[in-house]
Amino acid sequence: MNAILTLAGKELKDGLRNRWIISIFLLLGSLALLLLLVSSAPGGTVKVSSLNVGVVNLTSLTVYLLPLIALMLSFDALIGEFERGTMLLLLTYPLARWQIVMGKFVGHLLILMIALVLGYGGAALISLLITDGGSEGWENYLLMMTSSLMLGAVFLVVGYLVSILARERSAAIGLAIGVWLFFVVLYDLALLGALLVDKEQLISQELFSFLMLINPTDLYRVFNMSSITGSGEISHIVGAIGTESLSPIVLISTCLGWLLIPFMVVIGLFQRREV
Amino acid sequence: MVDSSLITVTNVVKRYRSETVLKGIDLNIGAGECVVLVGHNGAGKTTLMKLILGLIKPTEGAISVLGFDPSKDRARLLRKGLGYLPERVAFYESMTGLEVLRFYARLKSEPIAGCDEILESVGLFDAKERPVQTYSKGMKQRLGLAQALLGDPQFLLLDEPTSGLDPVVRRQVYDLINRKCAEGKTAIISSHSLNEVESQADHVVIMNEGEVIVSGSMESLYEQSGLPTIITLSVQEENKDRVLEQINGLTSSISVKDSKIEISCSQKDKMTVLQAVMSLDNGVDDIQISAPKLDDIYLHFIPNKVVASEREEETRA
């Protein structure tokens, strides 16, 4: 435990020193504030809480930004240490290899958490103070923040997988961007394309739900949309999937699967790696 | 039978794709021994060290450190009593020297209060608050040595500990290493500065192209090499002929240079020759005995082409 905390503390300090935390905080915070202020503007006759609208808008923003931020934090974690030669020394200390990955994960997750809490939390507080949008929907906002952290955690672990698979740092950057493009942009486009050409309706609703839920970014979207009361008025995505497939067990197990399976693969590959 | 070896290397082969880096190494290192690995670049010294550390696994053969396979996770606690200095040591550049040392102390569960003292012992105390990226190569090397000394480990593995250091610091580092060896620590040191480590070497291993060419104590290597000891007598001109006459027949190899008589004799005959010289009634002003150094022994055992290519490398450097 001591080793994990030491490594996590070092990552956190690095995050402060190289301005990662402040940059992510400023980026997320300013965009969140902007979106919340826009969301609080009077919008026709349908009365929806500005925080709920904010959740929808912020979800769309987070799903693009946070995976990219998490991948940028983690792609270098292992390959960078191998390339710079610091891993050699680290591995001669009395700690197991899984502890090295876990220590980095805890540190990076703390960086994301601090930036998210300060950025999104701060934006919500400021927005509440300067507008009359009311605090209705704050539970959904909190759930959105928590699920954003989970989304970040998943992409941190995916980033470690990129970091252990790549043979050099430059390749890891390319791979990380490729992973981001695939999960955030291409996957949904491919799914939509498949639906459009599927005249004979080979893709059943169950299969479509399954295909959407195995992508962590879609899982995140669906989770946040479904959490909002009166989601039908805001988004049709949930309707398309069907709420029965959104049981908390499915959501949590899919999320845990996305955390645990890549983590185990990273550890397995790391154990075999010679320095 | 109880095995008293701390480290046992049995017929270890290490291959990287088609290249065989180690070709069947056998080695036993006892607790408290100071072992010096000698060999040119690419001889396999660093690979052998990495195998002992468990950083890589042998393709064939077995390695045991205190009865454990060092590459297994459960052997990791052994590393608490180990200090390693890699050949090209690298640190987190944005951290200060003190932060780096405290980081490694925490990983070893050692009190961070001792860090200042260790930095002092390697001469980095004044630079401890500076980021490592501002350190010279020699300073980084000393910081590397400092982290290897954390927790006063019983077992030191030092890969070229003085590379890149100026002669004064080099001497200080070897004094420190010699002190650790004298305290009874087990140490494996690979080095190019052979003569600086030979005084503490209990065991010398000469490697070439992935094989152990010869291994043993300095005395046994000296004997095996058959290199002569040179006994130089300083004599006054008028006594030269008389002294020469008296020592004639002791050994066939006697040469005269100005007022010096050089007697070249084997290790076996050394005492006989010395006794004879001491019994000369007069005429000898001074006696100097020069035994072969580790450098000479190394050059004797290493094939000529390796020596030539090494010299070429040095000239280029």
Key descriptive features of the protein:
heterodimer, A: 275 residues, mainly alpha, B: 317 residues, alpha/beta, Rossmann fold, Alpha-Beta Plaits, six-stranded mixed β-sheet, four-stranded antiparallel β-sheet
What does this 3D model show about the protein?
The complex is a heterodimer of chains A (275) and B (317). In chain A, helix 2 runs parallel beside helix 6 (97-130) and helix 7 (138-165) runs antiparallel to helix 10. The longest helix of chain A has 34 residues, at 97-130. Chain A contains 13 helices and no strands. Chain A has one domain (2-272). With 275 residues, chain A is mostly helical. By secondary structure, chain B is of the alpha/beta class. Chain B has 2 domains: 5-223, P-loop containing nucleotide triphosphate hydrolases (Rossmann fold), CATH 3.40.50.300; 228-291, Alpha-Beta Plaits, CATH 3.30.70.980. A 6-stranded mixed sheet of chain B has the order 5-6-7-3-8-9. In chain B, a hairpin with a 2-residue loop joins strand 8 and strand 9 (211-216). In chain B, helix 7 (218-225) packs across helix 10. The termini of chain B are far apart. The interface between A and B is medium-sized, with 24 and 28 residues.
Q: How would you concisely characterize the structure shown here?
A:
Chain A has 275 residues and is mainly α.
Shape of chain A: globular
The tally of structural domains of chain B comes to 2
Instruction: Give the termini distance of chain A in whole angstroms.
Output: 24 Å
Fraction of residues in H or I helices of chain A: over 70%
Q: What order do the SSEs of chain B take from the amino end to the carboxyl end, as H and E?
A: EEEHEEHHHEHEHEEHEHEEHEHH
Report on the biggest sheet of chain B: 6 strands, mixed
Low-confidence stretches of chain A: 229-235
What general form of chain B does the structure show?
A: globular
User: What distance lies between the first and last C-alpha atoms of chain B, to the nearest angstrom?
Assistant: 50 Å
Give me the CATH superfamily of the largest domain in chain B.
Answer: P-loop containing nucleotide triphosphate hydrolases
Structural class of chain A: mainly alpha
Number of strands of chain A: 0
The average pLDDT of chain B is 87
In the predicted model, the low-confidence regions of chain B spanning at least 5 consecutive residues are none
Rg estimate of chain B, integer Å: 23 Å
Please give the domain count of chain A. Answer: 1
- Biggest pleated-sheet summary of chain A: none
What order do the helices and strands of chain A follow? HHHHHHHHHHHHH
Helix content of chain B: 25-40%
Quaternary organisation: heterodimer
CATH level-1 class of the largest domain in chain B: Alpha Beta
